[in-house]
TrEMBL record:
This is Dihydrolipoamide acyltransferase. Substrate binds at G61, R112. Keywords: Acyltransferase, Transferase. Residues 15-116 form the Fluoroacetyl-CoA-specific thioesterase-like domain.
Amino acid sequence: MALKEGLSLTQKMVVTEKDTAIYHKSGKLEVFATPAMVAFMENTAVACIENDLEKSLDTVGIQIDTKHIKASKLGATITCTAKLVKAEAKKLSFEIVASDEEGVIGSAFHVRYVIDPVKFMSRL
């Protein structure tokens, strides 16, 4: 496997009504929801390694330790950067930071494992 520590990727999104706490039922405010932020962080980690992962393989997330430290309003642009900080055998560890136009809104430590999707699904 050719995944090298230090790989990183930045993605951007704009907060819409489907990204709010009201929509996710995680609160009553029209602000960027923690579940939406976590999903965007995880998506950014997946995209970070997508081009370097063997095409027959996939990854599954097994851990995400997240801090959501600041609210973002509808229409805010969220920038998320994931960096592969450790690649040991099939275990991949990422540091992730999310920001809006005013600064950092959240951070995470995320672990994914490389899997063979056929074998994985056959065990369910």
